[in-house]
Amino acid sequence: MARKPGSSPTAMKNRAAKTAAAMAPAGAGATSAAAPAAPKKRTSPAQFAREVRAEARKITWTSRKETWITSVMVFIMVVLASLFFTAVDGGIGFAINQLLKLATSG
């Protein structure tokens, strides 16, 4: 199976470093606490749209095969869980009926 673009360890480290730099407070450690923070620059709607598109390109979608396998696994687990809870419900119901029969016959 072909490797997805940008999935090499170096590319991931570079993206992590860029994210960390972007999330760090402006001038962290470089400015004193008494210095006022510069007001944030507002972005235009066009710039916002460009940034959204850039982030959307980074999304790695699952393949059709992966989606199908995951869906089948979920269906199997739902069936198994329903069988388990049906058995437990039947067992508890049977036990309660036996207790009630014992209580009313005595």
Account of the protein in words:
The N and C termini lie far apart (71 Å). The protein has a domain at 63-106. By secondary structure, the chain is an all-alpha fold. The model has no long low-confidence stretch (mean pLDDT 84). It is elongated and about 85 Å long. The protein has 3 helices and no strands. It has helices spanning 9-23, 45-57, 64-105. Keywords: Cell membrane, Membrane, Protein transport, Translocation, Transmembrane, Transmembrane helix, Transport. It is found in: Cell membrane; Membrane. Residues 1-49 are annotated as: Disordered. The chain crosses the membrane at residues 68-96. Essential subunit of the Sec protein translocation channel SecYEG. Clamps together the 2 halves of SecY. May contact the channel plug during translocation.
From the N-terminal CA to the C-terminal CA, the straight-line distance is 71 Å
Describe the largest sheet.
none
Query: Could you tell me the number of beta strands?
Result: 0
Structural class designation? mainly alpha
Question: What gyration radius follows from the Cα positions, in whole Å?
Answer: 29 Å
Q: Could you say which overall geometry the principal axes of the C-alpha atoms support?
A: elongated
Q: H/E series, N to C?
A: HHH
Q: Give the DSSP E fraction (strand runs of 2 or more residues).
A: under 5%
